[in-house]
Amino acid sequence: MTSTTPRIRIRDLHKSFGSRTVLDGITFDVPAGMSLVIIGGSGSGKSVLLRCILGLITPDSGSIEINGEDIVAASEQRREKLRGEIGMLFQNAALFDSLPVWENVTFGLLAQKRIKRADARQKAASVLAQVGLDESVCDLYPSELSGGMQKRVGLARAIAAQPEILFFDEPTTGLDPIMGAIIDGLIVDCVKTLGSTAIAITHDMASAQRIGDQAAMLYKGRMVWQGAATSLMNSGNPLVDQFTHGRREGPISMELRK
Amino acid sequence: MDSLLSLVARLGRTTLDLIRAAGSLALFALEGLSHIFRPPFYGRVFFSTFQETGFFSLPVVALTALFSGGVIALQSYTGFAQYHAQNAIAGIVVLAVTRELGPVLAGLMVAGRVGAAIAAQLGTMRVTDQIDALSTLSTHPMKYLVAPRLLAGLVALPLLVFIADILGVAGGFTVCVMKLGFSPHAYITATLNSLKIADVTVGLVKAALFGFLISLMGCYYGYNSKGGAEGVGSATTAAVVTASILLLAFDYLLTDLFFSQ
Question: Which spans are transmembrane here (chain B) (predicted)?
Fold first, then answer.
């Protein structure tokens, strides 16, 4: 692996569900250490793209390389191994509601046998501290936490194994703007501290600019624009402009059903 | 002509759907089973499902067994008294309970209790992305969620049915002795004379299969559920209904296999 190999390299990715094309030839690179935010309307294929990279969905054609290794062609075992190197914060945190917070946070580490069960609670407390949570939440169950705290625990769980790659699926959805900004701040801190490569998908423009170095827009299964996250609001691309400014009139016609 | 064609087309599509469903269920079962034998093993998950199936179902199954044993005794008394064949009642009770009522009624009760709970639990995990989250945390969801539950069903139901057998006979005994004035000693002797180890064993084999089926249907429908709360609801219903029907169908097949000469 040379230093020029991108951490994630995607070439001509296609995926359809029945007659509905969700990904229609997506190509992009994410160099090591970069944070890419992907924006796009609901149903533009953002979640499917992340799930393809995670190996939870098999694409119809195209390649996905992580550190130069094609995961689409890899064996299921190898894919499982690679998946373990990606941390993911799910949209609704997706915490295991039958397990206490400490066990949620250390779940991956315990599964990989990187820590002993006896040390897990202490490890959880130190990871929780990184996301600004007190040790006292360790023994609570996810249903006892507020939405913002659940997101933090989800973030702690995603970073606990210190993954090289982090995915964030709409990290601020459902949070108030202040909590959203706090979560964004934590995400940036974690990504910087770990030196991870990150992909975040979001509809939240403020969040996109806070988290991302680079930004890209998906529309109808294609990547229609890519540029610096700071230029999101004045990209000069009519599709991106309409989306980021939330205009009703423009090249994007929402398929509304009456 | 057109309507005839569309009728045939619909019939064909339904048949294909059925075959596809049976195939995917069979593959799911095989994959789940294969994970039972390959490490890592999740003892905690196994134990909690085992406890739910075997221990917490005890009161319901015990009451069901007691009352059914009693009812069999009462009903056969009304029939047999006409022919002065009351002595056969103890035999009828022990035969009915060990061969059929124990496994079937306990199975149906557990399908309603545990099958539904498994489907709802896995279904909720599916629609809230918890199953995908497992995959991202180096844990195979089939191995973590499905395999221990299949094993727990397979092991717990025979134990439960063994207890149900005893309580079913006790139900018959209670009715015959307290209500119909049988001699306790004679009843027990008659029971022991008609008790066949083969009947009990086959009943327990049935129970193991039923336990497996109940867990399997709960896991299958829960694991593949989609569409939020409504999806979880219909997964739960489907799990209980199909488990109950399969259980009765397999009961017939096994009875035919073991007892019809």
Answer: 56-74, 150-180, 200-223, 235-254
**Cα torsion B69, B75, B78, B79: sign:** negative
Q: Does A52 touch chain B (CB under 8 A)?
A: no
The domain ranges of chain B are: 2-259
Backbone angles phi, psi at A18, to 5 degrees: 60, -125
Q: Is residue A169 domain-resident?
A: yes
Interface test with B, best of A47, A83, A85 (most B CBs within 10 A): A83
The CA distance from A182 to B28, in Å, is: 43
CA distance to partner chain A, nearest, from residue B142 (Å): 13
Task: Kindly state whether residues A144 and A176 are assigned to the same domain.
Answer: no
A87–chain B Cβ distance below 8 A for any pair: yes
pTM: 0.89
Q: How does pLDDT run across A11-60, given as a tens digit for each residue?
A: 999 999 888 889 999 999 999 989 999 998 877 788 899 999 988 888 99
Identify the domain containing residue A115 by its residue range: 100-162
A179-201 average pLDDT score: 90
- The shortest C-alpha distance from B66 to chain A (Å) reads 34
User: What is the pLDDT, as a whole number, of residue A3?
Assistant: 56
Mean pLDDT of B156-183: 95
From A56, A87, A112, residue closest to B135, measured CB to CB: A56
What's the domain count of chain A? 2
**Would the CB atoms of A80 and B133 count as touching at under 8 Å?**
no
Please report the pLDDT score of residue B108 as a whole number.
96
| CB contact (8 A) between residue A56 and residue B132 | yes
Per DSSP, what are the bridge partners of residue A65? A9, A70
A80 to chain B: closest CA residue: B138
Do residues A2 and A118 both lie within one domain? Answer: no
Q: In the block, which residue shows the tokens 């130190």?
A: A126
Chain B residues with beta carbon closer than 8 angstroms to that of A108: 136-139
A94 and B138 within 8 Å at the Cβ level: the answer is no
* Cβ–Cβ gap A111/B128 under 8 Å: no
Classify residue A242: in a domain, yes or no: yes
Query: Who among B129, B137, B140 is closest to A107 (CB)?
Result: B137
User: Which residue in B130, B132, B138 is closest to A111 by CB distance?
Assistant: B138
Nearest C-alpha of chain A: how many angstroms from B141?
11
Q: Which residues of A182-216 are buried (b: 16+ CB within 10 A; e: fewer)?
A: bbbebbeebbeebebbbbbbbbbbebbbbbbbbbb
A209 with A112, same domain: the answer is: no
CA distance B160 to A165: 48
The residue ranges of DSSP E strands in B9-137, in sequence order, are none
Q: Looking at the structure, do residues A13 and A78 belong to the same domain, yes or no?
A: yes
Q: What is the pLDDT of residue A258?
A: 38
Q: Which of A123, A146, A162 is the last residue of a domain?
A: A162
Q: Of A183, A214, A211, nearest to A91 (Cα)? A: A183
Residues B212-219, mean pLDDT to the nearest whole number: 97
**A vs B: CB pairs below 8 A:** 53
